[in-house]
């Protein structure tokens, strides 16, 4: 599996170089003393880990250092890595047992929703699932065309829509069609919307309700796609989406072009949402199940 770690390592180059590299460089042959704890604390805060999380990392490490009788900062490296890994959830492949399993994808404009849907379609198809795409973005003129191009490329069917038609109606038709055609997974694309736009947030609530009307219990999953390059900003946006629809996971897109990969820790801390998948490139195969070990390795490797 060396390849997977290589892929993460390469994708996290910016995050590693800009923020976490300084933490990696901290570990050396020097003695652990009060100054080194202060320095480590400052570095963790600079990496946007937040005061509380930083304090708990430092306290836990201090205790282990005492118990294990460690003396050099070099020996702290493994401890800090373990602490960071433990801050994150390790997701399993989401439950796709409902027939069909309906997945709604939401997020602000340009976060990576449509591309992530194409990647998920390819992934689930490779797992042997029959996948149907639903073009629920009826807002942006070219949105349905964009999804249609992906549907051809990945070779999965699509229920498409006309610009300005009702996204609830295409969602309803899509799910009913999936039931009739015995599809396994339905991926619903939605229009990008700013979390501050009241009408559009009401609209996505409606899409959510309509899904349940078409198939009680749907959507089985609602995932927000967060753009890793937007950092802290994205968290406020996600909170608004969380209030509108019952999100149960996040996809962290564009990790490969971001220096702010550390936001993964804040997603867990501030939103308590598991990161299910990460986008590590623009290609259809560049979506990986989030791997907390590969992630922490990738940001901290020396
Ligand atoms: N490098 C990189 N680029 C990505 C990734 N995911 C998406 N992109 C790019 O981000 C841009 C926007 O992606 P879309 O999938 O169209 O985003 P969207 O959220 O559907 O956008 P709207 O529908 O306009 O709200 C495209 O140029 C994608 O190629 C990723 O994981 N890595
Ligand atoms: Mg889109």
Give me the secondary-structure topology:
Layout lengths: L1 H10 L1 H14 L7 H13 L4 H18 L7 H11 L14 E6 L6 H14 L4 E6 L6 H12 L3 E2 L7 H14 L4 E6 L7 H17 L6 E7 L5 H12 L4 E5 L9 H9 L3 E5 L7 E3 L2 H9 L2
Parallel strand pairs: 1-4, 1-5, 2-3, 2-4, 5-6, 6-7
Antiparallel strand pairs: 7-8
- The amount of beta strand, in percent, is 5-15%
CATH homology superfamily of the largest domain: P-loop containing nucleotide triphosphate hydrolases
The dominant shape is elongated
Uncertain regions spanning at least 5 consecutive residues:
none
Biggest β-sheet: strands ordered side by side in the sheet: 3-2-4-1-5-6-7-8
The tally of helices reads: 12
**Average of per-residue pLDDT values:** 94
| Domain count | 2
CATH architecture of the largest domain: 3-Layer(aba) Sandwich
In quaternary terms, these chains amount to single chain
Ions, cofactors and other bound molecules: guanosine-5'-triphosphate, magnesium ion
The ordered H/E elements are: HHHHHEHEHEHEHEHEHEEH
Please report the first level of CATH classification, the CATH class of the largest domain: Alpha Beta
Could you say what the CATH topology of the largest domain is called?
Answer: Rossmann fold
Secondary-structure-derived class = alpha/beta
Helix content: 40-55%
Find the count of extended strands (DSSP E, 2+ residues). 8
Distance between the termini: 20 Å
Major sheet attributes: 8 strands, mixed
Q: Report Rg.
A: 21 Å
